[in-house]
Amino acid sequence: MTTIYDFPQSWNGLLVSPGRFRVRPFNQIAKRPWIGGMVPKGPISQVWLADQAFAPTRDPTRQEIQAFFTRLRGSSGVMRFYDASKLAPYYDRTHSPTPTYFSDGSTFSDGTGFENGLLPPQVFVALAGVRGTRFLTLGGFPASTAGVIHRGDLFEVWPNGIPSAFPHLYTAMYDVSSDANGKVGFDIEPGLRADIAIGDPVNLRYASSVFRLIDDTQGELETSDGVLYAGGFSLVEAVDLVP
User: What is the DSSP letter of 149?
Assistant: First the structure.
């Protein structure tokens, strides 16, 4: 079984903006014989690509980052990575939570309470789908709420309640509001990598995919006197792992 190494969330503050995290089509191209130019025959595939750089970083984190990429062994290793600009849905990024407490006014041991007004971190598949389908129906959202899905939001399917061992990340194609039952339906890209079942959890926060380094030179860091001065990495979705 392939080992997937999670990119540490504690390193989020070290990621330099702007980064790139996007779906790229790969089309088979044919030449137009009479009028010139090229015509696409596809797309034959769509994959997530990511490019990210690090800010200047001192030890011990600098050497921890170096060790992380060493363990990947170049493009032979696999890592789970996310879009650092979309760690939560747009709805959550544009709404302020309302703190509430237990009925007697008490809090958790750390002094915090509940946060209302945001989307749940996970929702669920409300309608089964087959591989290749470009429509997703989800449940578990607040009922009759406007704009719970915003075009470009990310969704990661967790089959049987656990992160997938292969890429299972999708993006919404338009805005949607929830119905009276807290359900939504919307177009997605890319098409489903695998069949999904009713009840499968869908992660809304830190939605990630499974990637490989695009080549064996990625993750090489320029350092001096225990400080990381320059470095970054480029990733391509590990679609070879899709069963």
Answer: B
